[in-house]
Specification:
protease; metallopeptidase activity; mainly alpha; 4-stranded mixed beta sheet; hydrolase; elongated; single chain; metalloprotease
Length: 396
């Protein structure tokens, strides 16, 4: 977990937070202005206060001075200036939650979380919850505005898959930010990781270093997070440990393990633009190949009527195997077949199929390419072998 005596890294929004705020602010200025102007309605705030007073126990400073001392210290550590009220819920599951109201802090504890955590773990828990408040309050509330827009989008029955995926990923990254707040508050990553494990298991004693080793074993399965509101605990522990140690691979690791590869089945708002750009560049690469004829350019313009000669072709890096999932690889294979079959000359078609097969090797799509030749074009095994024989000959 690194040197726990080190100074805490700066608590800044994650790259994904900044990307979504920039996207919404730049592409939806009217919606952004509307969401920025929203304030919690007085009746909603009063309803929340009434519920908390009726259904919880208020943790006053006179009876619980230590908890109040801790939260005051964490507020100072996270540079938050707002009055706070603490509550204990009646249910038994260990957890905590922030009831967000601009300018006010309301923290609700569930189960025996305050009793089962050590004091430094409790500080980490407070740091986690107060980090939510910090994120939603900084930079003029920009990150809360993004949350508001995404929450309202999800409220509609016809919410698009891209809005659903964006909201999911935004929530997951917000939890990673809050975990960092817990480590900053405790000035160590160990208590924050221990708190995650304790709230997951209900145990009184855990070993954060042992859990990190376990998380590393679980991490051998390279699938991205399937979480809806929170990433899986083993991913959160690893993400926090990497960040605390100033691992230069942290943001890349988070993008790979939380966001996952580019997938047609899970395109968030920014990746819709990315997928379009890759499609355009991929078709450009095929249509401008020396072996391509005018039919390829005509087909490209059916996809993108504003296409002009001289546009940049997609790079090898943008279609590398580690960036794409199976659905996107199949999509690129289909594009290759479309361009090849647009050529009216049989020899030209076969040449372009070889070009497509060569490019498929860059994105680990050779097997999918061969399967598509058999399934979609009904080519025989000898015909497929001839296409790849040309590829081998060209490489030689």
């Amino acid at each position: 977990m690194g040197d726990e005596s080190q100074s805490a890294p700066g608590l800044e929004p994650l790259a994904y937070h900044c990307q979504i705020v920039e996207h919404l602010r730049g592409n939806e200025p009217e919606i952004w202005a509307w969401a920025s102007s929203l304030q919690a309605r007085a009746e909603q705030v009063q309803e929340m206060r009434t519920y908390l007073l009726r259904e919880t126990y208020r943790i006053d400073a006179a009876a619980h001075p230590e908890v109040h001392e801790d939260i005051a210290a964490v507020l100072a550590k996270l540079e938050i200036d707002a009055p706070f009220t603490l509550y204990q819920a009646a249910d038994g599951a260990m957890n905590a939650a922030l009831c967000f109201v601009p300018g006010e802090i309301h923290l609700l504890f569930h189960g025996p979380v305050l009793e089962k955590l050590s004091r430094e773990e409790r500080v980490a828990l407070l740091g986690h919850e107060l980090a939510h408040y910090r994120l939603w309050s900084i930079e003029g509330g920009a990150y809360y505005t993004a949350t508001t827009i995404l929450d309202h989008a999800l409220a509609y029955p016809g919410a698009s898959p891209s809005h659903i995926e964006t909201a999911r990923l935004y929530r997951l990254h917000t939890e990673l930010y809050a975990d960092r707040g817990g480590a900053v508050a405790a000035n160590a990553s160990g208590p924050a990781i221990a708190t995650l494990v304790k709230t997951m298991t209900g145990l009184t004693t855990v070993d954060p270093e042992a859990y990190l080793r376990q998380a590393g074993e679980a991490g051998r399965d390279a699938r991205a997070s399937q979480g809806e509101t929170h990433p899986e605990i083993f991913l959160r522990a690893q993400a926090l440990d990497k960040w605390w140690r100033n691992d230069p691979d942290t943001e890349t690791w988070i993008d790979r393990r939380i966001r996952g590869p580019l997938s047609l089945a899970a395109l968030d708002l920014p990746r819709q633009y990315e997928a379009t750009a890759i499609t355009r560049g991929f078709l450009t690469r095929l249509a401008t190949h020396p072996a391509a004829d005018d039919a390829a350019t005509t087909l490209l313009r059916r996809y993108f009527p504003d296409w002009e000669p001289g546009e940049e072709a997609v790079s090898d890096t943008l279609i590398s195997a580690d960036r794409l999932d199976g659905s996107f690889r199949d999509f690129l294979v289909s594009l290759s077949l479309d361009v090849a079959m647009a050529d009216p000359d049989p020899e030209g078609r076969n040449t372009m199929l070889t070009v497509g097969a060569e490019i498929a090797s860059l994105y680990d799509g050779v097997d999918a390419f061969k399967a598509a030749l058999k399934r979609d074009l009904k080519l025989t095994r000898p015909a497929i072998d001839r296409i790849f024989a040309k590829l081998k000959k060209a490489k030689a």
